[in-house]
Give the backbone structure.
Amino acid sequence: MLLGAIADDFTGASDLANTLAKGGMATTQFVGVPASKAPADCEAGVVALKTRSIAPEQAVRQSLEAADWLKAQGCEQFLFKYCSTFDSTPMGNIGPVAEALLDRLGADLAVVCPVFPATGRRLFMGHLFVGDKLLSESGMEKHPLTPMTDPNIRRWLRLQTRGEVGLITLDTVRAGPEALAAAFHAERRKGVRLVVTDAIVDSDLMVLGAALAGHRLVTGGSGIALGLPENFRRAGKLAGGAGTKSVVKGPAVVLCGSCSTASQRQVAAYLKSRPGLALDPAGLMDGSMSIDKAAAWVAARNGAAPIVYSTADPASVADAQQRFGRAEIAAKVEHFFAGLVRRLADSGVRRVVVGGGETSGAVVEALGLTSLGIGEEIDPGVPALVAERNGPLGLALKSGNFGADDFFEKAVERIGTA
Ligand code: ADP
């Protein structure tokens, strides 16, 4: 493994893994710190933690555990990935984790760059924007767990750190890698270990990425990963096997627990040519629908890539929530999909496409998957995945509003063959 990343939440980890795979690195996403060694052909490993909103001491402990494991896999460079809206409180966890990683990895300085131009997160003069609004006027100031009330990232991070925080502005980034290297050096001489660095478009991130070759620790949003694979390619270290078509073969099923407008369109499009079983939450509640019944229905259509979906319009969802309770119905539906996917995978289904973020989490947990190989991108932000579960298992995990209308059909075909 060349590049080892630690992400502070699951979807952020997937986003980063997808960026690294697109950049040409053979990438695996790990669910928590693995107990065993990484696959031998893995060039970039992303360990997904859930440390964004826990106590700082725990976030530090878990992040160091991940760093130790990545170090043991031979990584040359480490990336601490947080949200590009810099989700944190005056207590942490970005500052404490970054400083602890610097110490553990014996690194003298790390860049801090919460930038993701594709989603409008840009940093200028150390101030973070979301679209054309300052972070603190973007709605993020009202976030329930990490209200971002100060757009000045240098000042906000300084509340969380022991040491001073530096700043490198856009004019230096635009002056190129040599100017950047000199600026990093100047910060080092001042004893600064964390340096907030501006970037507003992808080409800034590419220049910055080039200047970060050889930096032991890098921190940022997933945009900071855009320019890193190229350093390894230039050094002749990449095997060129990233995103290769997976070797998965076998029956497919689509499970959709998302009720987003995109998912509603995607389910409707898929039903035009594939068999579907609509899951009525009331049926789950009164026992007229069960995992057994749904599994038998799928088995009878093995080979036709059927879809089981609870996707419904907002009025039906509101009605079910009112009758049975919002949390109760969600738990029941997630439990159903978890049980169903386990049953189907045990009986030979090898390709699983899932709609819904929470539903995807329930599926990954139910299948006991601890590592996911990142394949080619199906639609922006959603890669084909391959996991090991009594042989290769192909997956696509799509959160609510991702994907084009024909996503399910494309996903079924891209994650393997019949
Ligand atoms: P998304 O990514 O679109 O938010 P999620 O899977 O994260 O999708 O969340 C959808 C939530 O709604 C899940 O908790 C799911 O169990 C629940 N749910 C799914 N179908 C229904 C339904 N018909 N009525 C009420 N709740 C539902």
Remarks:
- The chain is about 40% helix and 20% strand.
- Residues 257-260, 263, 281, 310, 312, 317, 320-321, 329-330, 333-334, 356-359, 399-400 surround adenosine-5'-diphosphate (CB under 6 Å).
- The chain has a mean pLDDT of 95.
- The two ends are 32 Å apart (CA to CA).
